[in-house]
Specification:
Layout (H helix, E strand, L loop, with lengths): L3 H4 L1 E2 L4 E2 L4 H11 L3 E5 L6 E6 H6 L17 E2 L4 H11 L4 E5 L2 E6 L1 H11 L16 E2 L4 H11 L3 E5 L5 E6 H5 L3 E2 L1 H8 L17 H6 L3 E2 L10 E2 L4 E2 L4 H11 L3 E5 L5 E6 H9 L1
Parallel strand pairs: 2-3, 5-6, 8-9, 14-15
Antiparallel strand pairs: 1-7, 3-4, 6-7, 9-10, 10-13, 11-12, 15-16
Helix pairs in contact: 4-11, 5-10, 5-11
Length: 281
């Protein structure tokens, strides 16, 4: 039996309380993270959890105690991967701190479970899964409409349709960020960047794109979605096996895949949380 200890991230990167949003953002940017456990001063006991979504939901707050999840869903290192998948599916939690003797020893995310899905779901088609909501957008919609859609629907990616209703792209925060002008001086001041010892890559700022948008740190270009989207996205079919879809996600570091029919018409979106639900059944 595979247990959480076998697949989790050991000795996760953490932030210490008391602390600030800037502290966490620096860690997220530097290490390409979407969530960070928060520990007390002793560096061992879990105090909370903060994810990118938590920051987006409180864009004006700076203190971690006002942003963090105070009682995050946790799991034991001896729990089975099936238990982890069930807990994520039931709570929609994408980051589970792993606790042992009241100490934080690891963290597990849906990505950590994809290989287990690959091994077990070879004959199960995607159409047998209960999929998350799909929120498409028209390719010629203004980019500001896409931002509003991201914010009010709580999705991480928008499949893009042309005038005939066919899938011709996908829009994620990474795609949008490439076209933004970010005020470098603002970032350096607000995040404490720009010193000689800072080795920050502009590529890494994509993970915090929408937070900066919500607090007006970027200029949104007045262009249609088609100018920003990723063309010809990787797709799957309803009859594609869950195992193959999990492999595609894992190898490409995708959190979602559009599901299309033989005419390239969008039928659904498949997310990593949908995929790992197979382990919970």
């Amino acid at each position: 039996m595979t247990v959480v200890r076998d697949v989790m991230t050991h000795k996760p990167i953490v932030s210490t309380l008391p602390g600030t949003r800037t502290d966490v953002l620096k860690l997220m940017v530097k290490h390409n993270l979407t969530g960070v456990p928060l520990v007390k001063r002793d560096g061992k006991r879990l105090a909370g959890l903060v994810t990118r979504r938590d920051i987006l939901n409180s864009p004006e707050e700076e203190q971690l105690v006002l942003i963090m999840q105070r009682d995050p869903v946790c799991i034991s290192s001896d729990a089975s991967v099936e238990d982890a998948a069930k807990l994520m599916s039931e709570t929609m939690a994408t980051h589970l701190p792993v606790i042992e003797d009241e100490r934080l020893i690891g963290i597990i995310t849906p990505t950590d479970l994809l290989y287990e899905v690959e091994k077990r779901a070879s004959n199960i088609p995607i159409e047998e899964l209960v999929l998350s909501p799909c929120v498409p957008i028209y390719s010629e919609a203004p980019l500001m409409v896409a931002f509003t859609t991201f914010r009010v629907t709580n999705v991480d990616a928008l499949p893009v349709l042309d005038a005939a209703g066919q899938l011709n792209g996908i829009l994620t925060d990474r795609d949008i960020f490439n076209k933004f002008h970010i005020h470098e001086s603002v970032l350096e001041q607000d995040m404490g960047l720009g010193g000689e010892d800072d080795n920050w890559s502009w590529e890494n700022y994509r993970n915090i794109l929408r937070m900066w948008y919500q607090v007006s740190k970027i200029d949104v270009p007045m262009v249609p979605v088609s100018r920003i989207m990723t063309d010809s996205p990787v797709t799957v079919f309803k009859r594609t096996s869950v195992s193959d879809a999990a492999r595609t996600m894992r190898r490409n570091d995708f959190g979602q895949l559009p599901v299309v029919d033989s005419r390239n018409m969008l039928t659904a979106m498949l997310y990593d949380l949908d995929i790992i639900s197979i382990l919970a059944d």
